[in-house]
Design goal:
The chain is mainly β. 9% of the residues lie in helices and 38% in strands. The strands form 7 sheets. It has a 6-stranded mixed β-sheet, with no helix packed on it. Strands 11, 13, 16, 18, 19 and 20 form a 6-stranded mixed β-sheet that branches. A 6-stranded mixed β-sheet has the order 22-21-26-31-28-29, with no helix packed on it. The N and C termini lie far apart (69 Å). Its cofactor is Cu cation.
Length: 567
Amino acid sequence: MEGVRVPLACALLLFVVSSIASAAIVEHTFNVQNLTISRLCKRQVITVVNGSLPGPTVRVKEGDSLVIQVINNSPHNITIHWHGIFHRLTVWADGPSMITQCPIQPGHRYAYRFNITGQEGTLWWHAHSSFLRATVYGAIIIRPKSGHSYPFPKPHKEVPIIFGEWWNTDVVALEEAAIATGIPPNNSDAYTINGLPGNLYPCSKDRMFNLDVVKGKLYLLRIINAAMNMQLFFKIANHKLTVVAADAVYTKPYLTDVIVIAPGQTVDALLHADKSIGSSYYMAAHPYASTPLVPFPNTTTRGVIHYIGGASKTRRTKRVLMPKLPSFFDTPTAHRFYSNLTSLVGGPHWVPVPHHVDEEMLVTIGLGLEACAKCPNSKFAASMNNHSFVLPKKLSILEAVFHGVDGIFTPDFPNQPPVKFDYTDPNITQTSPGLLFVHKSTSAKVLKFNTTVDLVLQNHALLAAESHPMHLHGFNFHVLAQEFGNYDPTRDRSKYNLVNPQFRNTLAVPVGGWAVIRFRADNPGAWIMHCHIDVHLPFGLGMVFVVENGPTKSTSLPPPPPDLPRC
């Protein structure tokens, strides 16, 4: 008997119906409120979502739609950013305050509506207004749609590992004082794993993350660095991990005994539980400090992995082994990890590198000073191409773009720094002190739809040479190359990886070095690119790409939703 032949039109209809049926509308309510909790021997009022730290995990499948109603019952203005989500034609839901929306004021609400398309893996959400991100954050887990599988063995269990930072103070007041004085805020008092500091901190013996595992099973660790300011080294004693994704993009499997992760980044790693029943091992994280010149909190957070089994299925811990973490200043180890990750060519949602480039930019990033006539000293500042970004106050940039309102931003962000100099020379300001002073502006770079951009991010050392984790909203970018020193196009273009480079949304630019990224501006809207060290963004280390509409309605910016918050 011959097989039944289905007409092409019917087959296409069945495919469409099947695709629609496999997608779902996932709804959440986020109640933003204050909560008093005990940490480090102190009672502290913090702002959280739904009464928990971290906040709720959003679990979806690729192709689903999300509707998240955010109700602001806190005393602070708030927005939520869905970090790494593309937001194709849903840019009004991206969330950065005064870029795509005015903040949700106390007593008000806003429904974020967006689709999950072409993405699988681990992303996360967080506050994008003031230092509230310190306690307002949570995971986004995107699994393959029904009928599809991971490009690696199916894990027995998936475990979010979310790093954070904790302050024994009001973080909003901390930021306000820093902006008013131009002095960076105090360092955090602890790091945390899933909201818990671990037993190396005072009054924290019982406030430590515990993970029970079964020998012979495979676990997928969904690792997120939600820390405000620090890159982190992470290890598990006597275990290796296999990295299989970064920033919700599948990678070629990479075996390592240490994970290095910058603020804003995510890493998915497989853990093979291959030790003896009854044994226990610490997982631990402490800072990677790219420069010894900048003070940092040199403490360690840790949790415990317990191998359970036998009749009782209980923990039988005698001695817990601690991993040997790299030195705080181990730049070679950090660079080796960051530069060895590559994309999984041909894997789900793999995107090849575009070869034709329309626009080339060289952007210097780093710290400087703001002249202040009424201050005893100059204020601390940060900039990109000497433009120190200032958020607008009357209207969001996206609303100004859509309604054609002038005076909110200027479309003059430069393709090159105003002055060329030896960017990585720490002594350059002795002969050219004027390089230190930044230009305050709300400037944007306007791109035509579908423009392919090569962007060289060059760290400078005017105040201190640092590694800066740079995050681009609305896009992933290919990381073509990253090295130390000054970028030289004649020498360094031959080093580009055009075959299987990382494809991600957040990149730690090497300390005293550079990175080249390439992205296609095929998503109309206003998209901020900024340093994900939160002590730097309020001082100006950011800029905005305005991507113009495409030729059709499906490639053009939609009108704002009716419940968009007003300033």
